[in-house]
Amino acid sequence: MELDTGVTAWMLTSASLVLLMTPGLALFYGGMVRGKSVLNMMMMSFGAMAVVGVIYVLWGWSMSYATGVGPEGYSLFANPFEQFGLGGGAIMDDAGEFVGEGLPVVVDVGFQATFAIITVALVSGAIADRVKFGTWMVFAGLFATLSYFPLSHMVWGGGLLSDAGPFVFGDAAPIDFAGGTVVHINAGIAALVLALIVGKRKGFGSEPMRPHNLPFVMLGAALLWFGWFGFNAGSAYGADGAAGLAWVNTTTATAAAIIGWLVTEKLRDGSATSLGAASGVVAGLVAITPAAGDVSPVGAIFVGLIAGALSAFAVGLKFKFGYDDSLDVVGIHLVAGLWGTLSLGFFATSTGLFYGGDFAQLGVQAVIALVAMIFAGVVTLVIGLVLKATMGWRISEEAEVSGIDLAVHSETAYETIAQGSVIKEVRS
Amino acid sequence: MKLVTGVIQPHRLDDVKSALEASGVRGMTVSEASGYGRQKGHTEVYRGAEYTVDLVPKVRIEILVGDEDAASIVDVVVNAAQTGKIGDGKVWTVPVDDIARVRTGEHGDSAL
């Protein structure tokens, strides 16, 4: 193998950037919950890192990128045993040399693992303040195994939703550059299903549940944006112009989404808020994810602008329909993820409607979005119900009211002056 | 002896403190408080969801004074805290039976 050091260096950097997104998400989510549950919220992200970081090398990679199970182009997942533990020649050949053309496969394993981690962590925002940590940890492993690995195989591993699959209409093959379906539609629909299974927080809709630390939220959004360069520009798999285009599109769409969100809330609510700006950042990043490599920078402005405005409206749906998607994973990741996936039908420079294409690309994108939604929705429903019947999801009502941090983790995030004077060392 | 208590707008605290020092008051207790009077609360909007916040931040200032000084100290606080808008707060006095200085054990006026 001739090693391409430039590409390898960039992919190692990208993997590190994407890994940073999950602690960034922990801050983004942690700031949005009440002060009594910030630690639990952040722990759900770190828990996802722990569980998925381990299982990815065991069977995650193999289930995603080994040989597909079933007829070619129709497989839902790959063989988990073929490259279990990264054996079976996954990263090293018999002579002990790293395999891969230009880029060692082991670097790609690291890059892909970080995507699996953040996808699982994203779901946690829908069930803030109220679920058992143990149940969450088990869910993280099951959801990654049964929903994320299969979807990443279907879209990127030559499976059902790839360009080797049946959903290729003429010139129009499915486009999901960096994970609109695999990551955001997947996490978004799982969030909706789990929010329904787990149920509302006590006092949802009647008691105030204000974000307790908006500077955390903004810092988290900034870290997500920074990490997303690895997510999108890294998905170009090169240190080249394609990566540069993805970088520019990512930033342009995100900037436009901030404007889209702020204008919407200024007109509707009267103020442009910091939470709106941070939320606009994430909505824009989500929407451009599937499209980052396949639209022009001007197209990216429209993708972002519409994503910001759409999500600003979508976050109100939970009050209308009465489901407690606490931190708006549905309103942002599902809605902007769907929009971003569909936007390629209009803005893809190869086959989009606005670039001389016909409706074929839009049709392909709608089909893959729908299949991803149904697949992830059904899988999450089964996992969620099984866990409800076995381990149970909810902590006790007293624990929820007094604060999940203290009840579940025996810690509190903040010390008041009065508390400080009564805390004494009781054992060393 | 009297206890003068004022609940005022937080941003007026510095002026009130200086005015009290200028008028010879040697000590006071200041604490953060929350409450509302005629101005009621305010509305905050997070992702389109409105929250009505009844209690707004205030500062409570407490001063122990001799009977003869109470009225003038109240005026000092009122003048320094006043902005003329709803929400400026209230100042009141209550009689105090006894005061003890912890350091020396003195009681009554000499503990002031």
Automatic annotation (TrEMBL), chain B:
Lineage: Bacteria, Bacillati, Actinomycetota, Actinomycetes, Micrococcales
The organism's place on the tree of life at top rank: Bacteria
Record carries keyword Cytoplasm: no
Quaternary structure and partners: Homotrimer.
SUPFAM superfamilies for this protein: GlnB-like (SSF54913)
UniProt entry tagged with the keyword Transcription regulation: yes
InterPro entries xref list: N-reg_PII, N-reg_PII-like_a/b, N-reg_PII/ATP_PRibTrfase_C, N-reg_PII_urydylation_site
Keyword annotations from UniProtKB, A to Z: Nucleotide-binding, Phosphoprotein, Transcription, Transcription regulation
The name this protein goes by in its record: Nitrogen regulatory protein P-II
UniProt organism field: Isoptericola haloaureus
